[in-house]
Design goal:
297 residues; alpha/beta; Rossmann fold; 2 domains; globular
Amino acid sequence: MIPICLITGFLGTGKTTLLKRIVEENRDRKWIYLVNEFSALDVDGAIVSEENPDVVSIPGGSIFCKCLVTEFIGQMTKIHEQHPDAEGVVIEASGMADPRVIADMLKETKLDAHFELNNIVSIVEPRSFLRLIHTLPNIIHQVEAADLVLLNKCDLFEEAQLVETEQAVGNIKPGSHLRRCEHAAIDFPVFEQTASHNDLHGEYAKCRDPRYSAFALDLPSSTDPRIFMDLINENEDAVYRVKGYVPTEDKPVYFDYSKAGFSITAAMPRSSYGLAWICKGEETERIERLAKEALEM
């Protein structure tokens, strides 16, 4: 049986950072990495594949929605057939995923004859978690399903906010195994099985969830990333996440926005540039229009 570790967490909590650390620290292991990107622009898969060639990307929605479940099953079947010596599969689910469905999915497709769900890790950070648990139920489901909850980005928040988040997690799942960390730097047994997942049940997500939507913005020429920062700050409630590569006058940068704030870091030149945007469903068309207008100014 090939063990599975499923990493979940809302947009910008640090899933890809954690996955990169796992890759870097286990280069000698025969592990396969599957990265699910809600946006059609595959940013996270490209980042992780720089560290390890054994990366499978599934962009364009949640692997637990009706639209992508067939592709997910197909990719898992390929892993079993093409990598019979694989020692484990680490899956980074999209930030919108409800992980409760994975156990039933493995059983229904008979993939449980080859794969065993050992560990579910959920990553949270105070700002997005405390603001959105009342409006986005999948954030709650991610904690309910978790064997381990990581409270990340602790260096960015006051102790009172951290305690409030820990209490909220405890209210959702009493007795949950929760650990604090910064920059997703934490050691834990990736494939350790601490509990059975037989009682984990959920429903496949709809192909189009009205609560959020995504678009990709191509950036063919030099762009000042500050125009996007201004746009996001003016429409903070409508924008959940923006990430990707921007070609500036000096050099390319990696642009990252989540509810925890902005990050702009130097990046290597690429063949193409663009940003993946995830917004509140009813606001997506307006934000996309504003982003395109900002580029033309």
